[in-house]
Amino acid sequence: MPKELAIKISKHGPICPACGEDRFDDYWRDPRVKSGYGIVTMKGALTCHGCGKNFHFETYNDGDTHSSMMRRVAALNGD
After folding, report:
1. Is 61 exposed, middle or buried (0-12, 13-18, 19+ CB in 10 A)?
2. Phi, psi (rounded to 5 degrees) for 20
3. Which pLDDT does position 40 carry in this prediction?
4. Ramachandran bin of 66, using left for φ above 0, alpha for ψ from -120 to 50, beta for the remaining angles
């Protein structure tokens, strides 16, 4: 199956790209979350409380948080 990049952008912290869950209390304390560098202030990976999938996020200096994951999609051309 082919894959695509799913991404959600928010001003209020990480959002699961798969199910839209946005309630991650104390996510910055997760051991997979690290301090960023340059324009990225924080980056890491989280496991969603809703669907259980893992996703990556980066928080930028302007306050935007980009949450992303690769996911499988059905082929449109029958491949």
Report:
1. exposed
2. 85, 5
3. 95
4. beta
* Residue 16 CB neighbours (<10 A): 25
pLDDT in tens, 33-57: 999 889 999 999 999 999 999 999 9
Q: How far is CA 43 from the centre of its chain?
A: 10
63 secondary structure, DSSP code: S
CA angle 72, 18, 69 (to 5 degrees): 60
Domain boundaries, the chain: 3-39+51-72
- Coil, helix or strand for 79? coil
* Residue 29: strand, helix, or coil: helix
